[in-house]
Structure prediction request, 160 residues.
Amino acid sequence: MAAVLKQPGGRYRPMTADDVAAVMEIERRAYPYPWTEGILRDCLRVGYNCWVHECEGRIEGYAVMSVAVGEAHILNLCVRPESQGRGLGRRLLRHLISVARRNRADTLFLEVRPSNRVALRLYEALGFVEVGRRRDYYPAGEAREDALVLARPLEGEIPD
Prediction:
């Protein structure tokens, strides 16, 4: 059963294969090192929690999360560049927290570039804390950039 959750200014719904082209268009514009279409299709194929936020028939943001053995891991969370700064990333992250809880996860993990200060502020505001570092995880031009590993217990209230 696929849930469609209505939210102010749009709705969340499970991502489908028909959404891949629109999601990839956003992915390529939002990231200097985007996922490939194959990676995204593999996430759908293996049954990861893949969601889109849609407003007036247009995908404004999306997220991919795996859940297994009591842990959830956000693999990708992205908002259309021209829609950033309006709180959609926060609402999408809160939605993932709720989905992870419904799937009986007790901890939610993610990786983020230390240089992505906007994302770090969002994650910290919603209760994520640094639990590790993956050295040279991300491509960064001629070099590599570390990933900060963040975690959030899923018990308790979700901060606003």
The chain has one domain: 5-153. The chain has four helices and eight strands.
